[in-house]
Amino acid sequence: MVSMQFEILQLFGTLESFLVNMEYLIQVQEESAIDQIRSDHFDEMEKEIDAAIDQIRLEKGPAFETGQEEIRSVIARIRSEKENANPEMVEEIDSVKEIYENYFPHFLRYSLIVTIVMILETQMIRLCDKIKLDRGLSMRSKDLKGDTLNQCKRYLEDVANLSLEQSLWDHIVDLSKVRNCIVHAMGDIELSNDRNHLRELVRRNQGLRIGDTVFSGLEKNILDLSPEYCRRSIQNVLTLFDNIFKAAGYKDLISSQQE
User: Fold this and answer.
1) Interior CA angle at 120 toward 119 and 125, to 5°?
2) How many CB atoms lie within 10 A of CB 163?
3) Sheet strands (E) in the chain
4) pLDDT, tens digit, for every residue of 109-121?
5) Letter string b/e over residues 38-63, b meaning 16 or more CB atoms within 10 A of that residue's CB
């Protein structure tokens, strides 16, 4: 039977891999989309070159075949015009960059944070239930008041009498507030009940920033997450679980991984 420790490591290891692959795939897709735009415009460019050469051939007649210098000049001129003075192509490329460099990473990181907290809450309830069963306790974490994480914290400390590190829970509280802002306010901190707390997190320079239309490409007041913030969030959750396993007398995550 797979241990709970191994399952937690596997779940969050998958999320870490997803984060790495996500950033790489976004970059690859952006490069591919830009190459396709250039290819489309270059195909049009080649047609213009062919048409220009046909016009020279018509005008020059037999002398055309000896006019290689003029042909090269026409080709160079058209290519230069297309590559350096094509506002339509530049606009299309800028639009693709905005999508792949701002919006895709933004919403994929949002989905990752929501998934992290979802797994955290689910596994935390399971761990509380395991402790209840192993210790023969009479109540579950769900019997307590509060949200899921608060229920589990109170259960572990007040019912199971575990001594936990408060600083680890502080990180989880921060993560939970970020998740709530994403889910309930579409990332707009001004619509969040935790706006002051979130602004303080941004001020601490932990990989969070507030979007603005000038520098980030995101709307004003929208919470923006860095890849490092997502990685740190995963590690903070794993550290918390490790602390709980140790406090409850179970094998920690590292020992379980080595089995």
Assistant:
1) 100
2) 9
3) 208-210, 223-225
4) 999 999 999 999 9
5) beebeeebeeebeeebeeeeeeeeee
Centre a 10 Å sphere on the Cβ of residue 138 and count the other Cβ atoms it contains.
7
Cα–Cα dist 218/211, whole Å: 5
| Residue pLDDT, tens place only, 218-243 | 577 899 999 999 999 999 999 999 99
User: Position 187: which residue type?
Assistant: G
Quote the tokens at residue 92.
């299309």
Q: End-to-end CA distance of the chain, in Å?
A: 13
Residue with the two structure tokens 């809450």: 121
144-152 long-range contacts, Cβ below 8 Å, gap at least 24?
Answer: 147/176, 148/121, 148/124, 149/120, 149/121, 149/124, 149/173, 149/176, 152/121, 152/124, 152/125, 152/127, 152/128
Q: How is residue 91 written in tokens?
A: 């606009």
Distance CA 108, CA 187 (A): 13
Bridge-partner residues for 157, per DSSP? none
